[in-house]
């Protein structure tokens, strides 16, 4: 039977390919360089010799010892909320670069107390409350609402509840791909706090209920805004304790393999971190900070939510949508809030950026 030469060539090429080893020999993976490691490298006599005196480490100036640190962040918030209630705490900008609202320390304190009371007494029943001190709750807030996030965060601290800030799930598929449900399930989260606008934007079933996201535990969605909260009794106050080894909040990071790793931060570590940042950045009382980072995690959380409240500083929050349209918007806010040209901008107003820390 006549055979086409072209077909025979292809078959022969396939046979030759199958005969080749799939992996290189084992000896090619290892190089015996033990003898080279034993050899002492002799200095080149032609190299120029070093000149000058030998360098020694210089001892820097000692950090100032501060004796009036607050015993906890909750105590600092109570102090500023009662002594300086009208002092500005947070100014949020809209997408056009105009101030959206100003949150004072008095409002932050009163709203946080209201959130703490409702978390402990209005969820569940009196015999079986849904949230107890030490439980973990999720904070699901968008990147353009730092005021609601700060109120919920400090409300959890006052109630001795551990907040777990996470990103807003846009779709059911998005929630499953981020593996946030594994984190929430490991933390035993049963309640999720969110803003009113974010709650309306979450995906809903035909009956109007928020469906259970893929991989998430079953959670109760709670909007901690004033119109949805009950006013606490006059004789009820949160118990302000000194910083201890109890868990303050839980952050998370995404590993290279896509897994989610939770990071537990104690109340003592949180307070010590704020003290270290205050001294290293030379923060002073009533100073102004421009924040262009995500206020829910990492550097943005450390400076714009924690350290700022400890020092009664004023935060100017620039949303990502405004930075995307106008990358120089933060410079305009520096000139707007500190417009004296005779004062060095760097000494009076600080910008929270990842490259600086």
From TrEMBL:
It holds the Pfam family AMP-binding. InterPro entries: AMP-dep_synth/lig_dom (IPR000873), ANL_N_sf (IPR042099). The gene is DIP2C_4. This is DIP2 disco-interacting protein 2 C. PANTHER family: DISCO-INTERACTING PROTEIN 2 DIP2 -RELATED (PTHR22754), DISCO-INTERACTING PROTEIN 2 HOMOLOG C (PTHR22754:SF33). Residues 85-320 form the AMP-dependent synthetase/ligase domain.
């Amino acid at each position: 039977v006549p055979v086409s030469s072209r077909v025979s060539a292809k078959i022969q090429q396939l046979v030759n390919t199958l005969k080749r080893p799939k992996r290189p020999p084992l000896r090619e993976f290892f190089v015996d360089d033990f003898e080279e490691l034993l050899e002492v490298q002799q200095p080149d006599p032609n190299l120029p010799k070093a000149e000058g005196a030998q360098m020694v480490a210089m001892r820097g100036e000692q950090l100032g010892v501060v004796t009036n640190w607050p015993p906890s962040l909750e105590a600092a918030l109570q102090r500023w909320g009662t002594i300086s209630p009208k002092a500005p705490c947070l100014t949020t900008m809209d997408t056009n670069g105009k101030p959206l609202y100003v949150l004072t320390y008095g409002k932050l304190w009163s709203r946080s107390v209201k959130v703490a009371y409702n978390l402990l007494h209005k969820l569940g029943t009196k015999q079986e409350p849904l949230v107890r001190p030490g439980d973990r709750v999720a904070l699901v807030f968008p990147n353009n609402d730092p005021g609601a996030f700060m109120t919920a965060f400090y409300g959890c601290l006052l109630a001795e509840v551990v907040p777990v800030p996470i990103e807003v799930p846009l779709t059911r598929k998005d929630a499953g791909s981020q593996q946030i449900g594994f984190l929430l399930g490991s933390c035993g989260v049963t309640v999720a706090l969110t803003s009113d606008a974010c709650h309306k934007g979450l995906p809903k079933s035909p009956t109007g209920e928020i469906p259970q996201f893929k991989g998430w535990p079953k959670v109760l969605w709670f909007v901690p805004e004033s119109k949805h909260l009950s006013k606490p009794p006059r004789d009820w106050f949160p118990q302000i304790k000194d910083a201890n080894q109890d868990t303050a909040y839980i952050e998370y990071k995404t590993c290279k393999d896509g897994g989610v790793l939770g990071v537990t931060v104690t109340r003592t570590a949180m307070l010590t971190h704020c003290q270290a940042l205050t001294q290293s950045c030379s923060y002073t009382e009533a100073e102004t900070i421009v924040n262009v980072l995500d206020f829910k995690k990492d550097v943005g959380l450390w400076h714009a939510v924690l350290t700022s409240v400890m020092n009664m500083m004023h935060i100017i929050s620039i949303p990502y949508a405004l930075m995307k349209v106008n990358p120089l918007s933060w410079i305009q806010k520096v000139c707007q809030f500190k417009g004296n040209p005779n004062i060095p901008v760097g000494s009076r107003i600080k910008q929270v950026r990842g490259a600086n820390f």
